Amino acid sequence: MDPSSTGIQEPFDLIRLSLSERVFVKLRGDRELTGILHAYDGHMNLILSDAEETIMIVDPVDGNFEGQGTVKVAKRKMEMLFVRGDGVILVSPPSRT
Amino acid sequence: MSGSPTDFLKGVVGKRVIVRLTSGVDYRGILSCLDGYMNIALEQTEEHVNGIVTNRYGDAFIRGNNGGYRSRR
């Protein structure tokens, strides 16, 4: 395998190394989350605390797709959050530099 | 040469790849590893939507069910 940076042998290692760290999560339905990762499992069910959800609401009435003309952004905060794994697209840990 | 899909994927670890999700979003980065569910870990990842870079991540975990297809660059 690839011993390049910090000895990640399987994708879940990346998540394990992010426990107790603030992570970025991209979800289905144009939603994004940041929060502190407390727990996860093989389905990528997640427990996040101090979570902020960002919801992108694209207005299709405007035929102007050039610069994604009308995108509304809604945000909400949650103290503690369970995320069902099947909605997860991507998880990114804080940069390890 | 390389027979099975698994052999191909082993060979492509550490290389620059493009992962396209079913949603049409592309992730370009260095493939650091993958598992039997096709969960993927990428390094130096760029998110491309319609050819425009929309995000950059140092590392990224992509859940396998989102449909990955990868290619050498």
Automatic annotation (TrEMBL), chain A:
Q: List, alphabetically, the InterPro entries matched.
A: Lsm3, LSM_dom_sf, Sm, Sm-like_LSM3, Sm_dom_euk/arc
Where's the Sm domain? 10-97
Give the matching SUPFAM superfamilies: Sm-like ribonucleoproteins (SSF50182)
**Record GO terms (molecular function):** RNA binding
Keyword RNA-binding in annotation: yes
GO biological process assignments: mRNA splicing, via spliceosome
Q: Which family does it belong to?
A: Belongs to the snRNP Sm proteins family.
What assembly does the database describe for this protein?
LSm subunits form a heteromer with a doughnut shape.
Name the UniProt record assigns to this protein: LSM complex subunit LSM3
Species the sequence originates in? Boletus edulis BED1
UniProt gene name = LSM3
From TrEMBL, chain B:
Xref: SMART domains? Sm
**A Pfam match:** LSM
Q: Is Kinase among this UniProt entry's keywords?
A: no
Query: Where is the protein situated, by its record's location annotation?
Result: Cytoplasm; Nucleus
> GO terms for molecular function, please?
RNA binding
Q: Which InterPro entries match?
A: Lsm6/sSmF, LSM_dom_sf, Sm, Sm_dom_euk/arc
The Sm domain, residue ranges: 4-73
A Gene Ontology biological process term: mRNA splicing, via spliceosome
GO cellular component terms given for this protein? nucleolus; P-body; sno(s)RNA-containing ribonucleoprotein complex; spliceosomal complex; U4/U6 x U5 tri-snRNP complex; U6 snRNP
Top-level taxon: Eukaryota
Which keywords does UniProt give here?
Cytoplasm, mRNA processing, mRNA splicing, Nucleus, Ribonucleoprotein, RNA-binding, rRNA processing, Spliceosome, tRNA processing
Tell me its family: Belongs to the snRNP Sm proteins family. SmF/LSm6 subfamily.
- Describe its partners and assembly state: Component of the heptameric LSM1-LSM7 complex, which consists of LSM1, LSM2, LSM3, LSM4, LSM5, LSM6 and LSM7. Component of the heptameric LSM2-LSM8 complex, which consists of LSM2, LSM3, LSM4, LSM5, LSM6, LSM7 and LSM8. The LSm subunits form a seven-membered ring structure with a doughnut shape.
Function description: Component of LSm protein complexes, which are involved in RNA processing and may function in a chaperone-like manner, facilitating the efficient association of RNA processing factors with their substrates. Component of the cytoplasmic LSM1-LSM7 complex, which is thought to be involved in mRNA degradation by activating the decapping step in the 5'-to-3' mRNA decay pathway. Component of the nuclear LSM2-LSM8 complex, which is involved in splicing of nuclear mRNAs.
Protein name from the UniProt record: U6 snRNA-associated Sm-like protein LSm6
